């Protein structure tokens, strides 16, 4: 339940964004913060979960995370401005970071050794199910009970988990003297946050005409530079060098980043397109995301249950090609279409992502020393999370830039003289305004399609990496 709760809250606001924007006066270019703030905060705290649990106790950290998560839910509903809402999402995301690794550790501890692989699969499926069902649940709740209900519904679930763990979960500590590389984590986080803010705020502040953008750019460059030097000059750090010596894990990390780059940004683009350009109600928008989620989880489970003797590389290649094909279908979207092309493309993309994620796990850990698998799993998860948050920033950035460019290209033909030549009588200003609205809608549609093209080419770029993966070792 905790794993599902953490995941579903990533995408719950997706279909409800029109209601949230209207209430909080949130600008269009601030919408991406609803997702990226939660994911980025989660990635940072997830990195230090093992150290926190070893120093203060697994149960104490787990319950503290649940309490903080509940407070974040309450603050979400009390927010009256977009900044307050984003700060509440940051708090909620930071609290969600420890929930997934600690939940998986608890599950594996109470599961017999021969069933741990299936338990890990169940946890992954539960997480992806949460991300996939979030838009449908959020759209339905916000349409009939108001957008605060999408957060209120999670409060009793959080309380149930807290009470259950308080009664049944035993405390467990590892070595209190365990060291953690805070310098490495800090420099890497500063680099990522600086890059994220640069992409999120650049268009609004006219890029390097703003001092803020210069500060964020310097922070990103300096953070990544210090982290790179730190990695090259120190034997042990929070991302062990030995992990990057395994070719399969290194390539899988890059591919996982791109899968994350496609997974959530597609949701972030599709819902606004359905609601603002095709005029679907928010609950219907949420329902239309269900086939994608069903295909994703179903393909993940079926691919994972395939015999271990099979080479997983063809499954990985097939899944990635299917994602590319689904995004190619999205290039045919138009304002005159019905729901069928959207459901079809979403279903195929979900199936491709599910196949790819399952096959990627086998490829990543098939050649890795088992003692490094927990850290390798954390690396894969972090790469997918950062892929999602960077992907959302990139598609939002290019969406608004492309909308303006296409609008200018179309509107230059919309002059009173050109219109009057094909119209009987005078053209009033309200009529010209209506025509301008049509042009804006067309420009936004073209811009959305352009972003699906970016996602398609991102996936195409990493498909050749599959040929460099080593064949996994046979399992004992």
Automatic annotation (TrEMBL):
Residues spanning the membrane: 33-53, 60-80, 86-108, 120-141, 147-170, 182-199, 214-233, 249-269, 289-308, 315-334, 346-365, 385-401, 452-469
Domain called Major facilitator superfamily (MFS) profile: residue spans: 1-476
Cell compartments where the protein resides: Membrane
Membrane topology, as annotated: Multi-pass membrane protein
Keywords annotated in UniProt: Membrane, Transmembrane, Transmembrane helix, Transport
CDD domains in UniProt: MFS_LmrB_MDR_like
Family annotation (Gene3D superfamilies): MFS general substrate transporter like domains
Membrane found in the keyword field: yes
Record protein name field: Multidrug efflux MFS transporter
Source organism: Bradyrhizobium zhengyangense
């Amino acid at each position: 339940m905790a794993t599902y709760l953490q995941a579903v809250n990533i995408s719950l606001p997706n279909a409800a964004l029109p209601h949230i924007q209207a209430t909080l006066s949130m600008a269009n270019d601030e919408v991406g913060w609803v997702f990226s703030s939660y994911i980025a905060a989660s990635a940072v705290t997830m990195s230090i979960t093992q150290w926190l649990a070893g120093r203060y106790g697994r149960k104490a950290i787990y319950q503290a995370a649940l309490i903080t998560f509940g407070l974040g839910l309450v603050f979400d509903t009390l927010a009256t401005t977009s900044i307050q809402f984003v700060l509440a999402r940051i708090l909620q995301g930071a609290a969600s970071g420890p929930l997934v690794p600690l939940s998986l550790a608890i599950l594996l501890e109470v599961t017999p050794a021969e069933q741990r692989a299936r338990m890990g699969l169940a946890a992954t499926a539960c997480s992806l199910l949460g991300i996939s069902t979030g838009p449908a649940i959020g759209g339905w709740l916000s349409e009939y009970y108001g957008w605060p209900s999408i957060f209120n519904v999670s409060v009793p679930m959080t309380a149930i988990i807290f009470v259950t763990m308080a009664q049944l979960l035993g405390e467990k500590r590892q070595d209190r003297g365990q060291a953690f590389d805070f310098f490495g984590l800090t420099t890497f986080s500063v680099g990522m946050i600086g890059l994220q803010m640069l992409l999120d705020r650049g268009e609004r502040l006219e890029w390097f005409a703003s001092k803020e953008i210069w500060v964020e750019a310097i922070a990103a460059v300096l953070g990544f530079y210090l982290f790179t030097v730190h990695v090259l000059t120190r034997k042990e750090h929070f991302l062990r060098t030995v992990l990057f010596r395994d070719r399969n894990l290194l390539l899988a990390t890059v591919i996982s980043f791109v899968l994350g780059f496609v997974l959530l940004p597609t949701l972030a683009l599709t819902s606004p397109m359905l609601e603002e350009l095709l005029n679907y109600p928010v609950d219907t928008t949420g329902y239309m995301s269900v086939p994608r989620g069903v295909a994703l989880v179903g393909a993940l489970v079926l691919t994972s249950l395939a015999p271990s003797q099979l080479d997983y590389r063809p499954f990985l290649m097939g899944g990635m090609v299917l994602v590319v094909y689904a995004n190619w279908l999205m290039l045919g979207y138009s304002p005159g279409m019905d729901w069928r092309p959207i459901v079809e493309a979403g279903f195929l993309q979900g199936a491709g992502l599910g196949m790819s994620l399952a096959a990627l796990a086998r490829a990543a850990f098939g050649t890795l020393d088992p003692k490094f698998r927990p850290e390798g799993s954390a690396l894969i998860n972090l790469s997918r999370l950062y892929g999602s948050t960077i992907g959302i920033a990139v598609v939002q950035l290019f969406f608004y830039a492309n909308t303006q460019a296409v609008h200018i290209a179309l509107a230059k033909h919309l002059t009173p003289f050109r219109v009057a030549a094909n119209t009987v009588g005078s053209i009033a200003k309200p009529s010209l305004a209506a025509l301008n609205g049509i042009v804006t809608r067309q420009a936004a549609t073209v811009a959305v399609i352009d972003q699906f093209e970016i996602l398609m080419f991102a996936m195409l770029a990493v498909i050749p990496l599959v040929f460099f993966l080593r064949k996994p070792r046979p399992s004992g």
